[in-house]
Amino acid sequence: MVIDSLKSWEAVDEYFSMYGHCDVDYVNEGTSEKIIRLLVDKWGQLNELSVLVKRKATIEGYVLGHVNSTLDIDDLEKLRDYSVSGCHIDNENLCEKLHLSAISALKKLHSFYSK
Q1: What's the predicted TM-score (pTM) here?
Q2: Which of 22, 29, 56, 59 has the most crowded Cβ, counting Cβ within 10 A?
Q3: Which whole-number Å values give the CA distances from 45 to 8, 9, 55, in the listed order?
Q4: How does residue 115 score in pLDDT terms, banded at 50, 70 and 90?
């Protein structure tokens, strides 16, 4: 399974189970990009992630760890906004954590660019 196959939360779960231990450097950045694409472009499928997190709690930290300052500011801002105004899942705690991760990444980016 390669990074390009990360087109669903189920695929992310499989990838995490098989390769999560070697998710470093450029691989990490590629995985982050695929995860933000799922979060931003397929926000309506967030409940699939929520169900997965209930079944396997470790995937939550993996996903949240990929919401980071390597990502595009516009995508992070969309995630920040969606997680506040568009959280239509039972697990509001997940939305709150996504929101906080997006804010943290944005702060790092803004601090980097303001130097």
Answers
A1: 0.90
A2: 59
A3: 9, 9, 16
A4: low
What is the rounded distance in angstroms from the CA atom of residue 63 to the CA atom of residue 68?
10
- ∠69-45-29 over CA atoms, to 5°? 25
Where are the domains positioned within the chain? 3-113
Q: Show the tokens assigned to 3.
A: 């990074």
